[in-house]
Please model this.
Amino acid sequence: MAWIIAFFAYAAIWQASVQIGIGTWWIGPRAQPTPTVVKVLPSLLAISMAMCAIYNVPRLVRLSAMGVLLATIVAIPDFSRSISLGVAELLVAGMLGVVTLVALTGRYRLVPRHALDDPISNLGPSGALPATAPGLAPDAAGAARDGVSTGTETDAAMNYFAPPDPTGR
Model:
């Protein structure tokens, strides 16, 4: 969603540069406009990153970080022509950077299957049923183990999603 907003932000910057009569480096002056490929460069960047997000490309956060770096590189030369347009482009790149950093905070990772068999972890062996704690009903035994459920549903899900164990273990 952020890259789609960036597309419209670059379109607004383009329109503002036409209105004030000072072209950005990628648009160029009216008397000598830049080639069309260069003109659509920021928009092409935003569209390609939005397509990567829509198709859920692996390593999307790294691609987004590279896109933010490219958006910053696009903004820097405009500080010599028009500081206000350069600031606007840098704000777009900065907001995309914030969205990219926030995307790193909420990532879920699957627990590898061999981590379930680790005696140090509190998850216990992957094939074993949880032991009932004294004084607890069998269905509440999972809650007695540091908030881990009864284990049967969790282990079944982990067996389905966990990568296979490395050979030789």
Observations:
- Residues 139-161 have pLDDT under 50 and may be disordered.
- The chain has two domains: 2-105, 113-161.
